[in-house]
Amino acid sequence: MSPSLLSKLRLVTVDVTGTLIAYKGQLGDYHCMAAKSAWMPCPDYERVHQGFKLAYAEMSRRHPCFGHAAAMPNAEWWKVCVRDSFAMAGYDYDDDTFERIFRRIYATFGSCAPYTVFPDARRFLRWLRGRGLVVGVVSNAEYRYRDVVLPALGLNQVSQPCHAHLLCLFAVSWSSDNRLLCATVRRARSGTSGCSRASTIAAASSASSALEELAAERKADGTQKSIGWGLYNSVSMFCVRLMQLEEEARRDPTCALNMERLLEARISSAVDLRRSLGLPSATTNAYRLVNSEGDRLSGLIVDIFADIAVIASSAAWVEKYREEIQFLVSKVNGINHIKWRPSEDILKEEGLDISEQKTHASSRSTVKVMENGIVYLVSLEGQKTGFYADQRENRHFISLLSKDQRVLDICCCSGGFALHAAKGGADNVIGIDSSGSALDLANENITLNELNRGRISFVKGDATAFMKGAISKNELWDLVILDPPKLAPRKKGAASMAGKKVTVLRQAGAACDHPTDPAYPEGQYLSNYMLRVA
């Protein structure tokens, strides 16, 4: 590390597990021992391991930092995670049995699970202390780490966790050893709202309005390879949102560590991409303009509904640059109004509580849009951004299959698939949904499209109850559309349990205006299957 960088370094934060120590044995070994202690058979290693990965990811999303930001007890966080792990693996223990199994697992990791200290860990810590640097730790087994593991490593002066929350620009460098991370930040602006993150020392100093020239690097043998630069949030599950790779910064240095310029470039690129896809067009003026990671702006979504842009914010950095984003979106041709829709729950996990902030409401609560020539009345207060533009191509596909068919649209919302089926020449279409407000829009959409109410209708009711009733009456449809919320944790074996044979005829995802990054497969959130059931 160069003397100039070292002189500005104040803090190093490390994740103890995987950076300083590693547990011995397989996760399944501990689950098996715990199950046997409760007189239960040993669960399948692979199924429980896969279940744990899913449960851990979901808990980290809902309650990041092991629940510390929400003052959630460590044991409670892990109890939910472990229970969900077993459930996803197909093991549904009764409460007493699970309690015995969980106590054994938690006690093992909290007291006697064997671990190995990496050979360079103590040397690295001595190097830090010799230079007077503060060391912060991330711990998921807090009491054992605090009382046993950390003192064994020489970290025995544990102070109170820092209650600072940073949203910063910083540069990143790699080296061959990916365990040792020495990172500081170049603070972009004054600190944002505070958030407690126990077990992590999140900042080198309290937030201030002054710009600080700091740096970031990974170091092992003195060779460094720059990755790029991004946004750092000490509270977020996504602590680093990489905004520009090093080679990109070399090609366009005007955007390097310049969020305003980067936003202008990325939004302009998004507009150009949609125009190349023919959006908007004479028959479609509802589409997605910015799709988060797919447009290299993680946490930002912009949907266009006629002359209104609905901006959905799910990252602290988006709130920080709200004025710049609104200004750039307002410059898009045809946009006359902007509706800002922050996701309060997700932003809380980002360290921001905006529940008391006043949002400037649009003067309109609804807007008429057109998709493939079909008119929709969209509620700007509806779910997500108000309209599911991601299903546009799938709705059009349904219209091509519907001629002379009896069609059932379950969980129809405001009637997207049902309206396309009716326009496609279906003999009869029924839409089912439990939301009265959604069905009000659906019925209005029948009028707007001048459809024959004798051939299309909407019914308020519970989808499961309706389907059971249809089975008891032996009612059949030629084409059934099911676009539900999550109904069950597992789909494996559903067809065989129903005594049916299913053939996959088509598999699709979101519309082309919802691009994804191959490096972020989680962005491919929508799966659409056309099935033949016999």
UniProtKB/TrEMBL annotation:
Matching SUPFAM superfamilies, A to Z? HAD-like (SSF56784), S-adenosyl-L-methionine-dependent methyltransferases (SSF53335)
The molecular function GO annotations come to: methyltransferase activity
Q: Which UniProt keywords apply?
A: Methyltransferase, S-adenosyl-L-methionine, Transferase
Q: Which residues constitute the signal peptide according to the record?
A: none
Q: Which GO terms describe its biological process?
A: methylation
Domain S-adenosylmethionine-dependent methyltransferase: where? 365-496
Q: Which InterPro entries match?
A: HAD-like_sf, HAD-SF_hydro_IA_REG-2-like_cap, HAD_sf, SAM-dep_methyl-trfase, SAM-dependent_MTases_sf
Q: Which domain of life is it from?
A: Eukaryota
Record-linked Pfam families:
Hydrolase (PF00702), Methyltrans_SAM (PF10672)
This protein is called Ribosomal RNA large subunit methyltransferase I
Q: Say which species the protein is native to.
A: Panicum miliaceum (Proso millet)
